Every structure is written in C-alpha cells, then in structure tokens.
Amino acid sequence: MSEPPASDAKWLKLVAGLPATVDLETSARECGALKRRRNIKDADSLLRVVMANAVGHLSLRGTAAWATMQGLKLSNPAVLKRLKGSADWLGHLLAEALASRMPVEQTPAGVQAGVGYRVRLIDATTISAPGSHGTDWRLHVAYDLEEMQTSAVELTGGSGSESLTRFNFQPGDLAIADRGYAKALDLAEVEARGADYIVRTGWNATRLRTESGGDFDLLGAARDMPEHTAREFQLTIALDRGEKQLMPVRLIAWRKSEAEAEASIRRARKESRRHGKALQPETLEAAKYVFLLTSLPPDEIPAEEVLALYRLRWQIELLFKRLKSLLRIDELPNKHPEAARCWILANLLAALLTEDQARLLLDSPPSAPRSARRRPLAVARPAPRA
User: Is 115's pLDDT higher than 80?
Assistant: First the structure.
C-alpha cells in the first residue's frame, strides 16, 4: 500500500488529534454543514477549507485560490457560504474536544480530603469585527492549571456578561477570577456545587455586611494598613436587595506599595478618561489595595497563601496573549456573524490541538511519569461539606 502524500500525512496526523468519538461525516451532515456537496464532496475536504481560511488567515479570495490549487473549484461567494454554514459544525467539534478534557463528575462523598484542589482560572476576552470600535464577541474561558490546558469555552455576543455560572464546577474545584466575577449569586452557586472560589472585588462590587448583618466600611477598615501586609475579615454578602439572605464570606485585603498604588491610580484615571466617566474618591482610595473574596477556610489556608493562589491568574492572561499574538484570533477577516463565528471556533479548535501537542512534550522524559509526579498546588483540601 502506497504512503499518502506528505501534505496528506500531516493533515491526517492533525485530524487524529480529534477525540475518537468524532465522526466528521455524520457530524457535518447533522449540523447542516454538508447539505449540498457541490465541489466539496466530504467533511474532510470541508474542514480543510475552513481551517485553511481561519488558521491560515486567508481572505475569501485567498481561500478560493488555495482550494482551486487543491482541486476544489470554489468562488469567493462559495467560500463565504461554506463558512457561514459550518459555524454550528465547528462548535460541535470544539465541544467534543473540550468534553474529552473534563474529568468524570464527582460526588462530594467521592472527593478525598488533603489531595489538593483542581485550580480553574476563569476570565473572558473581547473580539471586535473589522472597523468596529466596540465589543462584538466575548470569549469566556476556563483554564485548568494543573493540566495546563483549556477546559471550557463559551462564545457569546458582546453583551454576554462575565459570570461563573457559565461553567460547570464540581466538588474539589477552586475557581480563581478577576473582579468582573464578584457577583453574590454567582458565588453562592459555586458553593452550592461543592466548589470553592477566590475572586477579586472592588470597594462597591458586592453588598458586604458584618457577620451580624450590620454595615461594613471596607476602605475605613483597611486605611491604616502598612505596605505589603494582609488583613482579613469574616463578613457576609447580601444575596437579595432586601438583604434578608446573607452568605458568609472571607475577605482578604492587601496593601500595595506606594509605587504600585500610584501606577494603579494612573490606570484608573486613564480608564475614566477613555470612558468619559468621573472618578469617585473611593475608587482612587481602593486602587491602593487588592481585595479578595474567598470561600477557603482560614484555619486551613492562610491569607498569604490565598494571595499567592490568586497571582496564578496571570496564566490565563498568557493564554489570551497566545491566542491573540500567535493565532491572531482577534483579527476577524469579515463582519458576517456566522462566518466570523466559524472563524473564531476554528481557531479555538486549532488552539486545543496545539495544547495537546504541547502536553506530549510536558509528559515526556526527562520528566517522571504523570502518575508519579506530585500534583502542583496541592493545597490541602478539607473534608467535603456535609
């Protein structure tokens, strides 16, 4: 049997990275990507065209020319039509690839104490259409820090808000997120699923109350803190406007150095000018601190360790930098919503396949086998909640 051409061999190796559960032909047909097979006869050829356009950053004309060189006679309008019709299919392929990365769902009784948390970094980034000065798309991502891979993705329009409830948390998960996720009901939902969180908050992002339900002056309580010191408070958060439902929460305050505080104040003033909003004095005062909300028990994990865990959030920022600088996922080639969605999802699929290849290097010698390596960030986890 003759060997396939080098280009085909490379393509087959790439497609082999998809989960074994994926059937390209069946999924393309069921998702409506191959309603008509004119010029493109099978799902494999369609996926090649889509990936060439997205990952290759080809224009419609460039994609049509490339396809013609491969023996597929496609016009510019034909390419656009294929891209528009493939968005749901690429979404399906991406979902299958992500599903293969999720661990088996555990019950609280099945979670062992002391084995460490599964740290999941949560954030979102924005994508704009050509010529747009606003947010047309928002990409919501969960990043598994131990596995060093993306574990969940949701693509919404520009109005899709940041929320922890977009992700499926399990007992033993530790969600780490920036201040856009400091929403009382969302934090309550994370706890209800048996997971924990570390979320940054602003001075007025949540209705903080004392343990007895009285008023709490956050800035006043932190004002006399020395530089580079931490202080924590046992508080409650109001879950409803009537403040009849209060959820216990642990708040940790960190005082920045003068240089760090001045840099934060400059950024706050720049943002206010960009958005045309007046700065409140409290915002300038709050820029001197880092405020964290967490459900982690103080007797198990001290404030300094919570702060160290939160600093790991930078890893998801690096993920976004890779997506935008290497795959250039923020450089949409056209404005059509379905074609743009297909383009974004195809690049995300390529990113997952690249992560899988990177993991092969991380798991290979001279490292010890994964089963023999100590779990990173194996913060002792207390017994599951009753």
Answer: no
